[in-house]
Write a structure and sequence with these properties.
DNA polymerase, domain 1; hpI Integrase, Chain A; 3 domains; 3-stranded antiparallel sheet; 44% helix; 10% strand; globular
């Protein structure tokens, strides 16, 4: 059903009773954007038994609700004209990916909902932050609001924020990475939402630790690829390694981003909102052509159920099973394939400046973590997949 909306999700509202009180039950298929909006409604609760959100009928403002979710979904509220418990919920089907995110609901069992500061979510969306960043920032700003309960957020001082971060370090042992993310979430509110001066940069931040990236040997990569019998799975893992992609970049690949004629792969809007290109392995090109012929994806290069974008979780599971089958005991992640790609190129003598460009790093300092600098012309770059396959013959 086309609604003219960017997000054609569906929400159903039903009247019901809960402990002798009339309530409105809110049903929808799992969707992070809708979930984040619904959770901002004062007094809303997650009903574990009914697997829906509920709100006292006396506090429910239909017009306000419709205005709140109008950009995210269509709403069926026709049942609200009927008496409670005299209507039955239409089945709202969940796809495979919803099961992976079911814990998002369970986290909110009978818990009071923390209000996100006014304009916070909207500002994140207008600045086109990634879904993962939006989810992280919302979680951390809610923690901050809870901690500062009873205080006007506009009056919170840098010293109070420093004390809050120090408390998290001492009591919860948060990592330096999480510390930075929490500070950024707070700074976003004061600087971007409220438009205050950047006085909160004085908050002490940890020095970012530099640890060596975990990589696979050429032999281990080859073993993983050989253990994959499913052509789609082989294409997915092969593309990540042979072009040095982030998992999110692979998920966002479209069919037209594979340029077989030029042996090139186009990565659009990656980290930093920049487009770039990477090498397309000769060996992988054969696999991709076979995959495209068999699966005939519609828009995305790799599609999940109902032709939606492929699940990030599914990619990790595929790689985990392949690594186990290959007899690799260490934990193997998709990002390790990217690290391995860079390391193997450097070992082949490719100039680090070219690798920096292929990986999309803004500075060679980021790329230098892999190994020493060596010189080679761009025209001599071949995907490491071709090199190790030739060696394995």
């Amino acid at each position: 059903m086309k609604t003219g909306l960017k997000y054609s999700e569906h929400i159903q509202l039903l009247p019901a009773r809960y402990k002798e009180e009339e309530v409105v039950q809110i049903y929808f298929r799992f969707n992070v954007r809708i979930l984040n909006v619904v959770k901002t409604i004062p007094g809303i609760r997650w009903d574990v038994k009914e697997q829906c959100w509920r709100l006292p009928r006396s506090k429910f403002d239909l017009n306000g609700f419709l205005s709140l979710v109008r950009k995210e979904a269509t709403v069926d509220h026709s049942a609200l004209r009927q008496p409670p418990n005299k209507v039955y919920r239409k089945d709202i089907k969940h796809d495979k990916h919803d099961k992976n995110d079911k814990h998002e609901y369970q986290k909110n069992q009978e818990e009071p909902v923390t209000i996100v500061p006014t304009g916070y979510l909207e500002k994140l969306e207008r600045r086109r932050y990634s879904q993962n960043t939006v989810k992280t920032y919302l979680s951390y700003i809610k923690d901050f609001v809870v901690e500062m309960k009873g205080k006007d957020l506009k009056d919170i001082t840098p010293d109070e924020i420093n004390a809050y971060i120090l408390k998290l370090i001492r009591q919860k042992g948060i990592s330096s990475s999480q510390q930075n993310q929490r500070i950024n979430a707070i700074k976003f509110y004061y600087e971007k939402v409220l438009g205050q001066e950047k006085r909160f940069y004085t908050i002490e931040r940890p020095k970012k630790s530099r640890t060596l990236p975990k990589v696979l040997t050429e032999k281990e990569v080859l073993s993983v690829l050989k253990s994959l019998e499913n052509i789609k799975h082989k294409a997915i893992i092969g593309t990540i390694y042979s072009s040095g992609l982030r998992r999110s970049e692979l998920i966002n690949l479209r069919k037209q981003d594979i340029v077989f004629e030029n042996r090139m792969l186009i990565i659009r809007g990656s980290k930093g909102k920049q487009d770039r290109t990477s090498v397309l392995s000769d060996s992988l090109a054969i696999v991709l052509k076979k995959y495209l012929e068999i699966h005939a994806p519609n828009y995305w290069l790799f599609e999940g159920p109902q032709r939606k974008q492929y699940s990030a979780t599914s990619i990790s599971k595929i790689l985990d099973r392949a690594a186990q089958k290959a007899g690799i005991e260490k934990k193997v992640t998709p990002h390790m394939l990217r690290h391995s790609f860079a390391t193997h190129l450097l070992e082949q003598g490719i100039d680090i400046r070219y690798i920096q460009t292929i990986l999309g790093h803004s500075s060679t300092k980021t790329t230098e973590i892999y190994t020493h600098v060596s010189k080679k012309s761009l025209g001599n770059i071949k995907s490491p997949l071709d090199v190790i396959l030739k060696r394995g013959e």
